[in-house]
Amino acid sequence: MTTPHQIIIDTDPGQDDAVAILMALGSPQEIEILGITAVAGNVPLALTEKNARIVCELANRPDIRVFSGCDAPIARPLVTAEHVHGKTGLDGPTLPDPVMPLQDQHAVDFIIDTFRNAPAGSISLCTLGPLTNVAAALERAPDIAPKIKQIVMMGGAYFEVGNITPTAEFNIYVDPEAAKIVFGAGIPLVVLPLDVTHKTLVTKERNDAFRALPGKVGIAVAEMTDFFERFDKEKYGSTGAPLHDPTVIGYLLNPDLFQGREINVEIETGSDLTLGMTVADWWRVTDRPANALFIKDIDDEGFFTLLTERLATL
Ligand code: RIB
Ligand code: CA
């Protein structure tokens, strides 16, 4: 048996974050979650850390260690997205408040200690929100950079342009200084931008397949994506919610479902007009060195088959 992916999930739940966490929890043969670190993003930190625990308990996994991290970006005020995710960040289903404890250790300390104490290249970071926790860890402990196997992140946009401004995707926009640190750290990056997540839509058929799953997880996911889809339907006229964050876990489980290019990606931090833009040199018109595998396409049918079968195990 191949060694499972040992991962830390850094997240700002968020309905799509929740589905990503559930997909990972439904894949114990391939994925070992060492910890979940919450960051401020879709909603404030007090809610993202609570939502992360709610999701673990929904999957009957109160053993998972959840850590609370940074409550604001490195150098600017927090921007949240209640207009997309609702005031709780997990609007849609009615889920009980968590009983499982939050870990006492700060998320940034957990990230630093975990990588310092592990063999180099043995653990992947899966980031589903703003990169504040990761950048803070790299700033405080630059020695961990070469220890990180890869960062598989949902963030950025190029052909699809922005979703929070005309040029920027939310996760990068909230903390562009943090993103600049991460993209400049020399760590292997796999970036799942809006270019691919907007091709990963929860159509009615797919939502019905969630709803038909046995147990409480399927209906909760169906209700989350029912709530979550209205923003993109109104804005893009899309045929369902884009499942942004689960593509990160899907990539870990089956990278052959995805296609992209190793290119240079820089982060705009100086211009108010294009703040947080991922300047992706897709056509390689500069001599800037490649620093990311930037994903553009997905076998969306294959992805949803994989996602649905993993949710069915919970
Ligand atoms: O732009 C989409 C991203 O922003 C997703 O991670 C969503 O959860 C929000 O964090
Ligand atoms: Ca997210």
Structural account:
The chain has 314 residues and is an alpha/beta fold. The chain has one domain: Ribonucleoside hydrolase-like (Inosine-uridine Nucleoside N-ribohydrolase, Chain A, Alpha-Beta Complex), CATH 3.90.245. It has twelve helices and twelve strands. The protein has helices at residues 15-25, 45-58, 82-85, 107-116, 132-140, 170-174, 176-183, 194-197, 204-211, 216-236, 246-253, 300-311, and strands spanning 5-11, 31-38, 66-68, 123-127, 148-154, 189-192, 201-202, 241-242, 258-263, 265-267, 278-280, 292-298. The strands form three sheets. Strands 3-2-1-4-5-6-12-9 form an eight-stranded mixed sheet, sandwiched between helices. A two-stranded antiparallel ribbon has the order 7-8. Strands 10-11 form a two-stranded antiparallel sheet. Helix 1 runs parallel beside helix 2 (45-58) and helix 1 runs parallel beside helix 11. The longest helix has 21 residues, at 216-236. The radius of gyration is 18 Å and the shape is globular. The protein starts with a strand and ends with a helix. Bound molecules: alpha-D-ribofuranose (RIB) and calcium ion. Alpha-D-ribofuranose binds next to helix 1 and helix 6.
